[in-house]
Design goal:
Oligomer: homodimer
Shape of chain A: globular
Helix content of chain A: 40-55%
Radius of gyration of chain A: 21 Å
CATH superfamily of the largest domain in chain A: Isopropylmalate Dehydrogenase
Strand content of chain A: 5-15%
Largest interface: A-B, 62 and 62 residues
CATH class of the largest domain in chain A: Alpha Beta
Number of domains of chain A: 2
CATH topology of the largest domain in chain A: Isopropylmalate Dehydrogenase
Number of strands of chain A: 11
Largest sheet of chain A: 11 strands, mixed
Number of helices of chain A: 11
Strand order of the largest sheet of chain A: 3-2-1-4-11-10-5-6-9-7-8
CATH architecture of the largest domain in chain A: 3-Layer(aba) Sandwich
Structural class of chain A: alpha/beta
Distance between the termini of chain A: 39 Å
């Protein structure tokens, strides 16, 4: 798999981005990562790693970078030679099968959404999926921000696309699908979710559809794919990440009182155990969220991604960029047309 | 303050409910709690506490109870003599200044929403407020489920009502107000939040309005009142509670590996410290969420409320039931009419 990586996107780019690319191509001999961005700066980074497989790390120059605070659509139009648009251009022309960036989420999504010819056949609106932790393992939550005003049919399509993502990227066979709602009863929620519910019930997904999922239930993992509209999904995802940071921060303060009382050996082990636990629930482990419903793969990473996060994102991109993934989504959407 | 307490509402009612009432009247000599429900069962509970101030714990009989899974509006109509409707009846007739229940949330809210004559002058739609933990202390989040299809004007009113709640119940003077959104930029989100934002900016709240608040920012407490529509708020609140349960559960498993290695004295202190930390972020500390915008106070408690949660809810009810709170909300809403 050949993947375009926006080397300039991310809080500390290009350092950790290039490092992540090197780790990824070392781990996967079939992967080539095209580093897109300021060629001088990228080459400086590459030179730090004498034994990097340079033949699988080509560089494509892009002279501009879209800042995190710029308005995406305006910035894309003004900065023609930006690293995100260049990366999408490589996918659009068939040179790569996936794009990855830790830069402006808005610009990454807008590049995909503005380019309808990149949509897979049958897809109404692409969606961003995220991984949510649960007692039964990872849950695919979507949409977390691509579409602020979806129709019931969109939510249904999210169920189809999320199932394919859960199966191929998260390794969950025949994943259960749930609808995020404010209660477990049938008639709960707003018009959008009530209509979406009806679509699921008469669709080929009906046998895997577990009905409404409340905020608390997300952590149970009873549904391994949970669909919602992009506004709620985005707020929820960020609050979930905030909860991990907040609670572990409070925990660290609380533990500090006790750790000084312990023999250093125990204190070290305990501290290490907690850090390991925190790492398990951080976004870095999952390497960014994919924009689903497009030809090829697009993985959107956190601005604060380190080399580990980029490496994981490239791994997921390689999976999601495979042709059969797109075919699975197409097939799933064609099988149904539940909206009458 | 005279408060009606649904003695039959809650997973283990009436035991912990009656116990909470006794604790509350002991703590506040000016409080009378009218215990509403099956008089035989309530009296049995009261008899366990020989020294309870029985003169401030009158009983009003109600022969029926609305179950947690019953459809609220149907159940209210079918079970005329249920403890929730009886409690609201006492407030409607002026006998009490507040109602508290750990029973069916839907029935508590429906009783309030169906009774428009209980709305404060100027209130378009009541909202449920919840307390969200942050690094700067409690944040008032609303609406968490009263209204699934609010207008921008409703969100603005939530800001006014939430400010009064934050000031009187949470002790925050001149609280900052934020709008839950998917990004910090002005034009982010959907039509609802963009229009609500415009209302805030030209209102008397403008000086305290801090703009958009993302899911992650909730924990920063930069805004001490955060408004959102009821669907997102409900999902978010339950996910936040789920996060505390989930992360502390994982933590307990992780810690168990280390605690056995420690001298029992240390293990006990550490375990106790963690339980204390968890308790700080549990809903029980805040005693339920109020339905704001009505004459008098209505506090909705968790089904799993214990005596501590009920005691705290009664304390908040006594504050929120004061006449000046209603007057403050009325004044706030009258001062503005920002919708042209």
């Amino acid at each position: 798999m050949r993947i375009a990586l926006d080397a300039m996107g991310g809080d500390d780019a290009p350092g950790p981005i290039v490092e992540g690319a090197i780790q990824a191509v070392r781990a996967d001999p079939a992967m080539t990562v095209v580093l897109v961005g300021d060629q001088e700066r990228i080459r400086c980074e590459l030179e730090k790693y004498q034994d990097a497989p340079r033949d699988r790390l080509p560089v494509v120059h892009a002279s501009e970078v879209i800042g995190m605070d710029e308005k995406p659509v305006e910035a894309i139009r003004r900065k023609r030679d930006n690293s995100i648009s260049r990366s999408w251009g490589l996918m659009s022309s068939g040179d790569v099968g996936a794009v990855v960036s830790a830069g402006s989420t808005g610009a990454m999504v807008a590049s995909g959404l503005l380019n309808a010819k990149m949509y897979l056949p049958g897809v109404r609106r692409p969606a961003i999926a995220a991984v949510w932790p649960s007692r039964r393992g990872p849950v695919a939550l979507l949409d977390v921000g691509a579409n602020m005003a979806p129709k019931p049919e969109d939510l249904y399509q999210y169920g189809v696309m999320g199932s394919v993502y859960a199966q191929y990227a998260l390794g969950i066979d025949e994943p259960t699908v749930g609808l995020l709602n404010v209660g477990s009863e049938d008639d709960k929620g707003n018009e959008l979710v009530r209509e979406a519910r009806a679509l699921f019930l008469k669709s080929p997904l009906a046998s895997r559809f577990v009905g409404n999922v409340e905020g608390r239930d997300l952590y149970d993992g009873h549904a391994r794919v949970v669909v919602c509209e992009g506004f709620t999904g985005n707020v929820l995802l960020k609050a979930g990440e905030g909860a991990v940071e907040f609670l572990f921060g409070e925990l660290r303060t609380e533990m500090a009182k006790y750790l000084t009382l312990l023999p250093p050996e125990f204190a070290g082990r305990l501290g290490g155990g907690l850090e390991g636990l925190k790492a398990r629930y951080e976004y870095k482990e999952f390497g960014g969220g994919p924009l689903l419903g497009i030809r090829g793969a697009c993985i959107i990473c956190h601005g604060s991604s380190d080399a580990r996060a980029i490496k994981n994102a490239l791994r997921v991109a390689a999976i999601m960029g495979e042709e059969r993934i797109g075919q699975e989504i197409e097939k799933g959407l064609a099988a149904i047309a539940p909206a009458s």
